Structure formats: C-alpha cells, structure tokens
Amino acid sequence: MNAINPTGWRPSMGENEPETGIRTFTGNRALQLEEALLFELGAADRSGVDFPDTADIDLSALGPMARAERPNLPGLSEPETVRHYTRLSRQNYAIDLGLFPLGSCTMKHNPRLDEKVARMPGFADVHPLQPVHTVQGALSVMNELAHWLIELTGMHGVAMTPKAGAHGELCGLLCIRAALEAKGDPRDVILVPESAHGTNPATAAFAGFRVENIPATPEGRVDSAALIARLGPDVAGVMITNPNTCGLFERDLKIIADAVHAAGGYVYCDGANFNAIVGRVRPGDLGVDAMHINLHKTFSTPHGGGGPGSGPVVLSEALSPFGPLPFTARQADGSVKLIEEEQAHEEHPQAFGRMCAFHGQMGMYTRALAYILSHGADGLRQVSGDAVLNANYILRSLDDVLDAPFGASGHCMHEALFSDDGFAEGFSTNDLAKGLIDEGYHPMTVYFPLVVHGAMLVEPTETESKAGIDQFVGAMRSLAERARAGDEMLKSAPHLAPRRRLDETLAARKPKLVWKEG
Amino acid sequence: MTRYFTKDHEWIAVEGSEATVGITDYAQSQLGDITFVEVPGEGSEVSMGDSASVVDSVKAASDVYAPVSGKVTVSNAALEDQPELVNTDPEGDGWLWKMTLSDPAELDGLMDEASYQAFIAEL
To answer: Which of A132, A196, A215, B77 sits in a 20 to 30 Å window from A469, CA-based?
Structure first.
C-alpha cells in the first residue's frame, strides 16, 4: 500500500549534484540518506513481528472493548525501527558535533567525567521509594550539592526539586507569595524589565500576579530610575535577569534590590545566565531573595530538545522559611541540612508545599556535583572568565560587519548581541541564520531579545577553542558581508541541507500534526 | 465614517456609535506573516487600553488594545481560517472586531490619519 518511494524517482532529488549530474535511485547521496516517514517505511497492512493465531484465544472477556478495526500503526521489524531512528539522529545537530551558539542557552561541552559519575549504578539505579538507609549516598550528594549552590550564590537555603528554569521561577514567586501572605500583605504586582527573559512575565502571570513592564535604557540595561519610581505598597517584587538578555551585567542590581526591600518587596533574579558570573559574583551579596540556577546550563548536563532540566532555587534568609519540601537550609552551626516531609512540621513548618513528588533530577545532581568538585574554585572562576572572554572576542571580531547595538555599553558578558542594521534592503536576520546551516552550524538565537531589531544572540561558552571560534567568526563575517551586499543566493539558503528553506508561515498557519494516510 | 488611529497601531472606523477595529498597515508590516488571530468574544465588554485580541506572527505574539471602551458586537470569523487577511488587507477585510462605543468622547484622544502618518514617519 505504502511501499518505500512508491512513485520511483523523486523529482526534487538529483538536482543537488550539479557537478556530476548523478541521480540516485533512492534519492540518497552516499550516507546522506533520504529518510521516509515511519508510516511510509512500514505500512499498516504489514507487520514486523509474528502474532499468535487469535482463533484459539477467547476474546469474549474484552466485551465491547474488542477492536473492530485494525490499529493504524506502521508494521516494521526491529532492525527497520532501529535504523529509522538512528538515521534520523544522524541528521540532528548536537553539541557533540560542533559549536552550538544559541544565546541564553549555554550550550557547552559536558565533561565525560560527569556522565561517568551519573551512570554509577549506586546513583543511576536508585528509586525514590527505597528505604532511606539504602540511599544515604544519594542524599549525601544532594546535601553536598545544596551546600555548594548556597556557597556559590551567597544565599541561605535551596529548594533542589524544581525541574527547570521556568519551574524554578514559579517556585521563587510562590515563596514570595507565601512570605507576603504570612505577613497579611496583599501586594500583587510584579515588575519585569524589558531586558528580562521572556518566561519571567509568563511565570508571574501564572502565579497570579499582575505584570508591569519596566523599560530598558538606551544602553541595554534596566531603567533603574523608572523601576524605583514605580515601587509602592502594591509591588510584591521584581524579576530581573542578570546578566540580562542583552548580554550585559545589571550594574544597578544592588541599588534596585535595596530600594525594593525598603518598599517592602522581594527580588527575584533569573539565574539562567549564571555561567557568566559563577565564582565571581554572589547574587546574595547583591540583595537577591530568590534565584534559580539552571544546572543543565551552568553545571553540565546535555540539554536542548526538551530536557532534561533542573532548576534549583536558592533563597535568602527572608524567603527560606517558605521554601518547598524537601528543602535544604543552613543551620545555626553553619552546616546545611536536607529537611524532609517527616521533620517539616518541626523544622520547616511554613513550607508552601512541594514542587514535585520526589527529590528532583538525581542524574543532574550527580553531574553538577562532579562538575563543581572537578573544577574547584579556581576552575569555576576560569569558566566564567573564559565564557565572557570568548563572547567579547566574537563581539569585537564582528562589530565592523555586524551592528552591535550595545557595543558602546562596555564589555558584554556571556553573549554577543547583534542587529540586522546595515543589511541590504530585503535581507533579514533569518537569511543569515539559514546561511549558517549551509556553513555547518546550528544558528544562533534570533529575534530575541525583542528590544533589538532582528536580534542575533551568540553565546560561544567557555568550551570552544580559539581556532573553533575563529572559524565561526569567519563564517559569520562571510554571511554578514553577503547580507550587506545583497547576495540573492542567501535569501534562499540553506542550499546544502537535507531540506531547503521551509515555509514556516504555512507550517504555523496550517500545521500538520498527525500523519494521515494518502 | 471617520477613521482614528492609536499609538499602539490600531485603527478604529467610527459611524455614529458603531465602530470597526483593526491593526494598521504599518503594524502588519512590522509583525510579518500573521499565523493566528484571537478575536474577542462577541458580547464582551472592553475598556480603553485593555488587551482585547492577540495577533500571532512568525516573529511574535502581540496584544491588540481596545482603542476605546464599549461592547464587542461582531468578531471577524473569517480570520480563523485566513489570518493572512490581516497582512493583505489590514484596514479592510482584515478587520478584527466591531463594537458599540460606550463613551465617544474617548475618540478625542486618538490621532487622525495625517497625525498617525506623521507619528510612524518618526519611528
């Protein structure tokens, strides 16, 4: 019914080889395979496995649940299935293949040592319902990691369980809400600067707060005068991303935090960009009350494509009493202690609840602790130093061919931000990004932050060598020059990828989400 | 019929106490290809400056604010299947909703065509 390539030649194939004129029967180009959909590979009327004869089976127990029609599933053998997904995976781009310059994502190399530690059976195979005396090692890892997160951020306590950044933001805002409710204070406005991450206003709205935007200054930082002027008895807190989405350090954070505290509010800091300041700045010293740390970004876990994530939330002394269970807080003797549900009524009675059923992402705790301990204090300082150096190297290597809107605002932090100013008429950031695919790179973050027209946000991270960055800079320079000169070929890039430029508008307007026969 | 404009790039065409609302040609050109339009429910009350509708484009999701206060009488059902009308005919077939005005005096704060053209010329 649906044989592989039922119509024979694919008219779109073959033309990709203009030099040789060779057209292959399959549409494949050596190991660049033209992969059909799973349903095209294995039709519903075929089966890859032998089922027992149903004639001898009493189906009456199924009653009305007995299926009248065949399930519409593709029939494939095990090797066909394995090959399908393996071939697809070969078409994917990954940090293990090359530079992944997505700004705000901190796509850096994940040391194999941390993977090895996470796979040790004593950590990898624990079950959350095991007797406590059998998981002392895992609890010890959580406790020690909690200690280092508190230490690195200069905070008082940490809720380890949130599963990623936005979950951590929600955790932080629920702590703020619990603290206000404990005081009988009905504040309900959260201020969010334009330079914050896009998830911040969404989280505040989800947590039941009203969101008000605070403008950015021309140099790309939060307008602290406007923010402080807005403070009042209705403001529950502010959410500031530092370093912010323009790649700049929010120099006024301490001044802002002091003003917010004086006005009775709390300060949430989006710590997604912690990689740029780890080992150098302690957010607790800047007056931050709550901050999530993306373990998967700063502390080594392969991420992207949907996970896994882990976003522990460090809390100030003011908010720690309200942190969700299980909760880790500094004790009077200076040590830190993991408080479970069983001891909560005595030791942590004001917890607002739980963020997840068990203890969070164990596999990421082991990776993060291995990362922290293997780098040491000096190594972590070098991480942030090299990440910032690499971003500045890219910013200054390209600012003669790409507009750097905040290039005059001083050094950038972990990411370099460019705009489409100077491109030829009709050429966009999208064209340059698609051109990067032909050059063999995953494109950078585009059209974010919104305050910059045609934004291109490049985060090289500390794990790229100078030679690797120089090659990327060369590719970017070439593409920028083509966009400035109005090279029409760039408008239809990519030309060398398995697929040409996709119709993203049609895909958004008329999405096909389910395979249908015919 | 008189057409007014807001600084948020909505237009409102008024006839008596009835009006039609949409986004301007400048707005659609900035948004790029529009992929989805969420129109306000018929019969809903909107206040001047409220977010009444959302326009999604390939670049961003943007709120559309009510230029004046009143009650939504008709929403443009054609946009459900053809959101591109907002791109091709923003100030005609790409209208978003019709409404009755509760306070026509609010129109005094809006711009006329000439003032709006001068406004976007400076952006």
So the answer is: A196
Residue of B59, B60, B83 lying closest to A509 (CB–CB): B83
Residues A33-57 have pLDDT tens digits of 888 888 888 876 777 778 788 788 8
Which fold, A113-368?
A: Aspartate Aminotransferase; domain 2 (3.40.640)
A450 contacts on B by Cβ (under 8 Å): 60
pTM of the predicted model as reported, rounded to 2 decimal places = 0.86
Q: A50: distance to nearest CA of chain B, Å?
A: 45
Q: In this structure, which topology does domain B2-103 adopt according to CATH?
A: OB fold (Dihydrolipoamide Acetyltransferase, E2P) (2.40.50)
| Model confidence pLDDT, tens digit, residues B52-61 | 999 999 877 8
Between A245 and A476, the higher pLDDT residue: A476
Q: Please, which residues 444-463 of chain A have a Cβ atom closer than 8 Å to chain B?
A: 447, 450
Size of interface A-B (CB pairs under 8 A): 16
- Classified as helix, coil or strand, A263 is coil
* Region A378-508: CATH code: 3.90.1150.10
CB-CB contact of A371 with A152 (8 Å): no
Answer whether residue A508 shows pLDDT above 60: yes
Cβ separation A447–B84 shorter than 8 A: no
Tell me which of A193-202, A330-339, A382-391, A423-432 is least confident: A330-339
pLDDT at A13: 46
The pLDDT of residue A17 is 59
Which contacts (CB < 8 Å, 24+ apart) does range A307-310 have? A307/A164, A308/A163, A308/A361, A308/A363, A308/A364, A309/A163, A309/A164, A309/A165, A309/A167, A309/A361, A309/A364, A310/A162, A310/A163, A310/A164, A310/A360, A310/A361, A310/A364, A310/A365, A310/A368
What is the amino acid identity at position A229?
A
Asked whether residue A386 carries a pLDDT value surpassing 80, the answer given is: yes
A contact test, residue of B36, B56, B59 with most A CBs within 10 A: B59
Say whether pLDDT at A5 is over 80.
Answer: no
To the nearest whole Å, the CA of A506 is away from the closest chain B CA by: 8
Positions of CATH 3.90.1150.10 in chain A: 378-508
